[in-house]
Design a protein that fits this description.
Layout: H1 9-23, E1 27-28, E2 34-35, H2 39-57, E3 67-70, H3 76-81, H4 83-88, E4 93-95, E5 100-102, E6 120-125, H5 137-150, E7 153-159, H6 177-180, H7 199-204, H8 218-233, E8 238-242, H9 258-272, E9 278-281, H10 296-299, E10 303-305, H11 307-318, H12 322-325, E11 339-342, H13 346-350, H14 365-376, E12 382-386, H15 407-418, E13 424-429, E14 432-437, E15 441-446, E16 452-457, E17 464-468, E18 474-478, E19 481-486, E20 491-495, E21 526-529, H16 541-552, H17 559-565, H18 575-585, E22 597-601, E23 626-633, E24 642-649, E25 655-659, E26 661-663, E27 666-672, E28 677-684, E29 695-698, E30 702-703, E31 708-715, E32 721-726
Parallel strand pairs: 3-4, 3-12, 4-7, 7-8, 8-9, 9-10, 10-11, 11-12, 23-31
Antiparallel strand pairs: 1-2, 5-6, 13-14, 14-15, 15-20, 16-19, 17-18, 17-20, 18-19, 21-22, 23-27, 24-25, 24-28, 26-27, 28-29, 28-30, 31-32
């Protein structure tokens, strides 16, 4: 740290009502509604819920394997409201700003007061409403409970190296007397500035006047242990430790027990709560400064920031130095599985350092996102995307920049998750830097600009035809060359994603004349639908409830219901079946043909028609006559990166998608006669197909009338936006 100064509407609303009803009889509602079970079954039920939720979005259970969104200066309630978007964007974890009670109130403060959070007064969560612009302990509990539904882990930033001052080197009066008045709680050189040429000064000196805690003192360690437990009791799954390099490690002497004691306690406590804790430390530049230990002194306890890697790539991107951008090394010698990379951080953005390599506020979003393409594509290292505040005049707690949800960033996130654990090869050719992964994926960045036709050497990619997940452009690999067109973002995320099979279309050619009369079997008396565990002739969240009850043994499925619930065909109902249904519900590949009517039981014998007639040529469907026109003004929430579509329906089985045309504040679509119900959907602009998988946000259910006018008014909860409607 530097201190220089799914669709809610008709279908989902019905699911939510079901969840609410079943919760009154012993079922907890969630993204995958989980049955309430005995103590012995609790751990298994929780695992089912989290695994199903995370897998539905392709998120990683181990934070190190995924990517982190640093929701810097976002209030806890604003993070909570954005969770659907965060999950859809591929972030496995979201990191908050420091939540400890700080030395002064931040309510109503502008973002230029961000530094106050890094001067805490104690080791407790804020409980006083209206004191912190970020929220309270209750808000953290609510955030973690909601995040659990999406498989998102919450990471809390922790300041354990120092507390706040009053002015100069005075201790803040907000510090509890038990710490403030105990000289053993402070390092003997707390009132001296740090000399980075001396390791003792780095770990015992004052950082810009901030009093340095005696982290070797058991009392201080107990305070920190209890604070971490308090956070975990709220549902927190990880911690980022500010100024970690300024706290010594056991490698430096037997008295330096902070990390071994505190993290051992935290890890053990997490295990009692049924999860593996993730921790990483802010270790800027080299750990060996001033005679410090090797980086392994820290990585035996936690992951660490590889700040100079991201800073160097970002600066090279700004200078259009392609060789510098293709930096595949870890400057501290950190192993990849203990490294945290970034394109920028809150320090590089907010401190306005004179050192160009430590300053990012003068770097465009365009170059930041291209840098993200290079760091986010790496193997084993996690990467943190910093959400900017677009300057410092807006209020703390607000959401400013939404670049974290841009098409190119989302594509990189999903690439990172897909290729977790697969080999990498970092290279450059001409103006293009790139990272190949596995044998069938690559992220390419045009360092010199934006759109460009490229042909670069392949090293581990196999020959084939691939698709850029941002633009849809085709790339080919042939004769050891990767060729294709990078789009205007300057990034191409190239790999193939399996598509959900579509229903067969009506044949365009007439059937041939049969030589014998066709037979027509009567409608079977019984059948079952794959995934329909409760037998209501549909696949929805109610089926997940039944299947999870079957997994934990609170219900027994037999007959058609057992066959329907066993979607993987292994003869039993398991977590794998639930995961498959969840993937189907959010639009992922339907490998197991979920939703298909099969398994006819006791069919009647087919009979021949008495007087078969020759088949006639199929008639062309009549083009529906436009009935109602829906006009949309989305300017209140639009970013210019989305598409707009309408979902219209008459019934559960009679529905369709309609593209909206227009730009800026004026979009329109014609709704065919008879379709009186509709939802306005904000689609991922990097896609072309209208489906719920490509949805970013949506309105509630609406009703058409001739000349309906819709105006977006702001953001709602659970992935919705609010609208006003006239006519």
């Amino acid at each position: 740290m530097f201190l220089n100064r799914t669709f809610i509407g008709k279908k989902t609303l019905s699911v939510m009502l079901v969840c609410a009803m079943v919760s009154t009889v012993g079922v907890t509602s969630a993204i995958t509604t989980t049955a309430t079970v005995t103590d012995k079954q609790n751990s298994q039920a929780t695992t089912v819920q989290t695994e199903s939720s995370a897998n539905s979005y392709g998120l990683k259970d181990n934070i190190q394997d995924g990517v982190i969104l640093h929701a810097w200066e976002w209030s806890l309630s604003n993070i909570k409201d954005r969770l659907p978007q965060i999950a859809q964007a591929g972030y496995s974890a979201v990191q908050t700003t420091v939540l400890q009670h700080c030395k002064e109130s931040t309510a109503g403060k502008a973002n230029d007061g961000w530094w106050v959070y890094y001067q805490p007064a104690s080791f407790v969560l804020e409980t006083q409403s209206g004191y912190s612009a970020l929220g309270t302990k209750a808000d953290l509990q609510a955030l973690c409970a909601e995040a659990e539904k999406y498989g998102i882990k919450v990471i809390v930033d922790v300041v354990a190296n120092h507390l706040g001052n009053k002015s100069g080197y005075d201790l803040s009066p907000s510090i509890p007397d038990d710490i403030r008045n105990d000289g053993n709680c402070w390092h003997d050189q707390w009132n001296k500035e740090i000399n980075y040429g001396n390791r003792y000064s780095i770990t015992h000196g004052s950082m810009n006047g901030l009093p340095d805690l005696n982290t070797e003192n058991p009392k201080i360690q107990t305070y920190v242990k209890n604070y971490l437990r308090e956070c975990m009791d709220c549902g927190v799954k990880g911690f980022r430790f500010d100024a970690a390099k300024h706290i010594s490690v056991p490698d430096e002497g037997g008295e330096y027990t902070f990390w071994s004691n505190v993290l051992s306690d935290a890890n053990s406590y997490a295990q009692t709560k049924g999860f593996n804790l993730y921790s990483y430390g802010e270790v800027l530049n080299q750990t060996t400064e001033g005679g410090g230990p090797a980086v392994t002194g820290y990585t035996q306890y936690m992951s660490v920031t590889e700040n100079t890697v991201g800073n160097s790539i970002r600066t090279s991107m700004k200078k259009k130095n392609v060789q510098g951008v293709a930096d595949g090394s870890y400057h501290k010698g950190t192993s990849a599985d203990k490294a945290v990379l970034w394109a920028e951080s809150h320090d590089t953005y907010a401190n306005q350092s004179e050192n160009e390599y430590e300053r990012s506020n003068d770097v465009s979003d365009f170059d930041i996102n291209k840098t993200w393409g290079m760091v986010g594509a790496r193997n084993k290292a996690t990467a943190l995307y910093f959400a900017r505040t677009n300057g410092f005049a807006t209020k703390i707690g607000t959401v400013n920049s939404t670049q974290c949800f841009s098409n190119e960033v989302i594509a990189v996130n999903k690439f990172h998750n897909k290729y977790a654990g697969q080999n990498e090869y970092v290279a450059y050719s001409g103006s293009v830097a790139y990272v190949e992964r596995g044998t069938d994926g690559v992220v390419l960045v045009n360092v010199s600009g934006s759109s460009q036709q490229v042909s670069v050497p392949s090293h581990i990619m196999k020959d084939g035809t691939y698709k850029d997940q941002i633009t849809g452009n085709t790339f080919t690999v042939s004769n050891k060359q990767i060729s294709g067109q990078i789009g205007e973002t300057g990034i191409a995320v190239v790999h193939n994603v399996s598509e959900t099979p579509t229903q067969p279309t009506t044949p365009t050619t007439p059937p041939t004349q049969p030589t014998t009369p066709p037979t027509q079997p009567t409608t079977p008396t019984e059948s079952y639908m794959i995934g329909d565990a409760n037998g209501d002739n549909g696949v929805n969240m109610k089926d997940c409830v039944i299947m999870q009850k079957a997994v934990v043994g609170s219900v027994t499925l037999t007959g058609k219901k057992l066959k329907a619930a066993d979607v993987t065909g292994d003869g039993k109902v398991s977590v794998g079946d639930i995961v498959a249904v969840m993937r189907y519900l959010v639009g992922y590949t339907n490998t197991y043909k979920i939703g298909t009517l099969v398994g006819v039981e006791n069919p009647t014998s087919p009979t021949s028609p008495t007087n078969p007639t020759s088949p006639t040529n199929p008639t062309s469907p009549t083009t529906p006559v436009p009935g109602n026109t829906v006009s949309l003004d989305p300017s209140a929430i639009a970013t210019g990166t989305e598409r707009w579509a309408l979902y219209v329906w008459k019934s559960e089985t009679d529905n369709k998608w309609i593209n909206m045309s227009g730009s800026g504040s004026s979009f329109k679509a014609d709704v065919p006669d008879g379709y009186t119900n509709f939802i306005v959907v904000r689609m991922n602009g990097g896609t072309t197909e209208n489906n719920w998988s490509n949805k970013w946000n949506q309105s509630a259910d609406l009703t058409t009338a001739n000349g309906t006018v819709i105006k977006a008014t702001g953001w709602g909860a659970n992935g919705t936006f609010t609208v006003t409607q006239s006519k």
